[in-house]
Structure to design on (470 residues):
């Protein structure tokens, strides 16, 4: 939401490519009675996200599976009543729960008219001395002359060595031996950063290395970067300011590609979103133009990608970036034209503590194409906005405002908003009303993968999410 409860943008799914999927553990229920169990991720890397999958064998099985973790005080539900799809149900397990070898997970099948219910167990082994290293860049794909930050995340126990950043065998200035800063509230996950000023044209290959403490081994990641010519990165939440508090536009930029979402309100003041998934720059690289869409799909509570329909374009929009840091938004939507002057939305002062860098467009992969979440980030403060669909399959958005971190785990309250009609009228911020409707937790295994758990209007669900490529 914008202003006192700022809004952030979103993106329709894109299927160009995906990061590596989390490791998967498989449960197999053979009906009736007999149970077999196999795991393809045993043992798993320390503090890695895993996915539990129950396969039900029987006579056209229907129903649902509930996944739990066994703790010292009993079972704790991870994914409740996951409906079967093609006799299968899955549950992602947050990385923070995958740190102790020998943890027991259970999958309980509800049964149906043709098949009895059943419960099976899986003992998850973890390589507790394993180390994981990952690196992201900010901006995602820089333009020539930009400052680029390489941020490494290291997970494991006893993280006392230093990280090196080099190019062509030569340490980058000031980055020959960078100490790891543990995330506040964590003892087994930390970050190390290296800033590259005014990146030059051409292909670069940066090598990031973390030597093991316990042996002579090391973890290493190669980061290729080829900066593009074009406009300065505009990734951020943008708004008009307090005079039009309650609506805004997210702009996410990868290289020369921008993904723009307008979070606004229909004629009855209900929240809706329009998306500009791709466009073109003018010759001066100051104005980005593209087609706007308002998709439809199934409700978020029972999402089916097969029902996702981008539809025909509802109009066009152009964002022209001015030298004073503002931007002019002009649009035509359903034959109604208008214009607004936008500025970046301020939020999130720097507290000086170590942080992950997760600002980007996120989604649940091609399997749930059509919905997603934009995470705006200023320092350690996140401003996620979840763009999805209501019970009638119409576009709706929810904002997560504020929220504390514990290690790599972020938790915040989910808000729904109503406000003034936006299209073709003078927006009235006095009609902006914010209502808390639930909570959300984002449990990051690294800076590119997370488990999203939400409870909203009596619906509790868990999804694996990752950065959206476009």
């Amino acid at each position: 939401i914008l202003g006192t409860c700022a809004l952030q943008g979103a993106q329709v799914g894109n299927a160009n490519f995906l990061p590596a999927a989390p490791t998967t553990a498989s449960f197999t229920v053979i009906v009736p009675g007999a149970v077999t169990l196999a795991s393809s991720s045993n043992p798993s890397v320390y503090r890695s996200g895993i996915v539990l999958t129950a396969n039900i064998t029987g006579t056209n099985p229907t129903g649902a599976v509930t996944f739990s973790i066994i703790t010292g005080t009993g079972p704790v539900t991870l994914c409740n009543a996951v409906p079967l799809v093609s006799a299968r149900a899955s549950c992602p397990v947050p990385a923070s729960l995958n740190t102790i070898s020998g943890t027991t997970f259970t999958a309980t099948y509800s049964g149906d008219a043709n098949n009895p219910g059943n419960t099976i167990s899986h003992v998850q082994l973890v390589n507790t001395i394993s180390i994981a290293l990952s690196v992201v860049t900010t901006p995602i794909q820089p333009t020539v002359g930009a400052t680029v930050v390489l941020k490494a995340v290291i997970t494991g126990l006893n993280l006392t060595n230093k990280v090196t950043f080099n190019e062509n065998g030569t340490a980058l200035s000031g980055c020959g031996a960078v100490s790891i800063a543990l995330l506040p509230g964590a003892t087994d996950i930390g970050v190390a950063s290296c800033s590259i000023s005014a990146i030059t044209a051409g292909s670069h290959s940066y090598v990031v290395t973390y030597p093991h403490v316990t042996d002579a081994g090391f973890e290493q990641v190669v980061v290729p970067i080829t900066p593009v010519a074009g406009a300065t990165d505009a990734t951020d939440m943008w708004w008009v300011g307090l005079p039009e508090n309650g609506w805004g536009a997210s702009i996410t930029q990868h290289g020369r590609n921008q993904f723009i979402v307008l979070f606004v309100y229909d004629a009855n003041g209900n929240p809706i979103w329009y998306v500009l998934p791709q466009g073109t720059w003018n010759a001066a690289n100051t104005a980005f133009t593209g087609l706007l869409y308002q998709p439809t799909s199934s409700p978020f509570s029972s999402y089916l990608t097969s029902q996702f329909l981008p539809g025909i374009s509802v109009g066009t929009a152009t964002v022209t970036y001015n030298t004073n840091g503002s931007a002019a938004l002009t649009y035509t939507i359903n034959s109604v034209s208008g214009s607004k002057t936008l500025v970046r939305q301020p939020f999130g002062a720097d507290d000086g503590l170590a942080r992950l860098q997760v600002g980007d467009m996120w989604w649940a992969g091609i399997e749930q194409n059509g919905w997603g979440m934009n995470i705006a980030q200023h320092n350690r403060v996140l401003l996620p906005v979840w763009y999805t669909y209501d019970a009638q399959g119409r576009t709706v958005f929810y904002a997560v405002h504020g929220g504390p971190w514990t290690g790599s785990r972020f938790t915040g309250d989910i808000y729904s908003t109503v406000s003034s009609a936006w299209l073709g009228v003078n927006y009235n911020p006095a009609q902006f009303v914010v209502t808390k409707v639930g909570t959300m937790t984002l449990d990051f295994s690294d800076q590119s993968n997370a488990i999203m758990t939400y409870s909203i209007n009596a619906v509790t669900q868990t999804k694996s999410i990752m950065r959206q490529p476009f």
User: Anything to note?
Assistant: Confidence is low (pLDDT under 50) at residues 1-21, 30-39. The chain is about 0% helix and 50% strand.
